[in-house]
Amino acid sequence: MKEYEINAQTLAVIPVKENKTRIIEMNKELMVNLPCREIIDNSCKFFGSSLEGRVNGTKTLTGITHKSPIIIEESKKIIFFPTKSSRKSTCCWISYNNILKYEDILDGVLITFSCGKQIKLGISYTIIDNQVLRSTRLESVLTKRISEFI
Q: What is the pLDDT of residue 74?
């Protein structure tokens, strides 16, 4: 595939090679011939912004400046967070909304999604825990802002 837009079914966006990305959805997996960062940026653009715009939005809403979770799409509250600096080619993006639980394992962390799928990442539990907390904060502020206008 040469294009992909993140949606509510997307669980994770994982780099495989410099210009190849594995997309994990609830019911299927795909390989896309684009780097992760470009897929994230294109998805933000599809919904009317850009990765840079979403990062700036997160900073404005929460004050978070590093490894910022982002709102891909507001009405469905699709929020993704990076596992490291989004500028690194090894950065994965995880769907905050679809996480059921995450556990500390020997070589990293095991994330279980609400659909039952699991992925192992070679990063610390603390990193994932911090990113989930940041995403929770972003979701809370977004929900409050939306409710003020309804």
A: 87
- Specify if 134 maps to a domain: yes
Contacts of 32 (CB under 8 A, 6+ apart): 1, 2, 3, 4, 20, 21, 23, 39
Domain count, the chain: 1
Please tell me the distance from the alpha carbon of residue 24 to that of residue 126, in angstroms, as a whole number. 23
- pTM for the predicted model, two decimal places: 0.94
In the chain, which stretches have pLDDT less than 50?
none
Are residues 87 and 68 in contact, defined by beta-carbon separation less than 8 angstroms? no
Q: Quick check: is 34 in a domain? A: yes
In a domain, 4, yes or no: no
Residue 81 lies in a domain: yes
